[in-house]
Amino acid sequence: MAAPQQIQVVKPDPDPTLLTTESLLREISHLKELTSERFRTHEVRTDSIENRLNHKYIETADAIRNLRDLHEEKFQGLDKLGRQAREDNQTRLDAAFKSANDTRDKIEESLTKQIEAVTKATNEASKATNEKIDRLTSRLDTGEGKSKGAGDLWGYLIGIAGVAFGAAAIFLRH
């Protein structure tokens, strides 16, 4: 077998490995600067978006709170109106009952006066009839007009019965 040949490595001057390494390091540095600048830009944008979202969250929370307060105020107002309506209805109902009671009292008073008037008229008619009966009785006692007195007596009795029925009809009608 033949002896291995030695390979000779020739390095040019200047060494391209060093130049490549320097170039790579320089580009990596530029890349790091660009990347960090981009990250800073994204970070600023993210902070801006976060601030806007926080602001919108606060605005939304305030709007919700205001809406809740408004609804509570409206419901309290409705509750107050309901209570006021119930109180007004009770007042009207009390006034109606008082008016009905006053009317009933006036009707009772009027009926009492009418009954008293009918009773008075009946008593006066009765008294007048009794006086007539007494006069007739005295005439009969004296013996005057026996047949005429009996006929008149029946007339007076029928008249008294008519007056009594008339008074009863007036009394029952009212």
Polypeptide structure, described:
By secondary structure, this protein is mainly alpha-helical. The protein has one domain (17-173). The chain has two helices and no strands. The protein is rod-shaped and about 200 Å long. The termini are far apart.
Q: How widely separated are the two ends?
A: 160 Å
- Shape category: rod-shaped
- Number of DSSP helices? 2
What is the gyration radius calculated from CA atoms?
A: 64 Å
Mean pLDDT rating: 85
Number of strands: 0
Instruction: Give the structural class.
Output: mainly alpha
Pick out the low-confidence regions.
Answer: none
Count structural domains.
Answer: 1
**Most strands sheet:** none
Fraction of helical residues: over 70%
SSE run? HH
The fraction of residues in strands falls at under 5%
Q: Helices and strands in order, then pairings?
A:
Elements: H1 16-142, H2 146-173
Helix pairs in contact: 1-2
Describe, in short, the structure shown:
This protein is an all-alpha fold and 174 residues long. The chain has helices at residues 16-142, 146-173.
Please tag this protein with its features.
single chain; mainly alpha; 2 helices; 174 residues
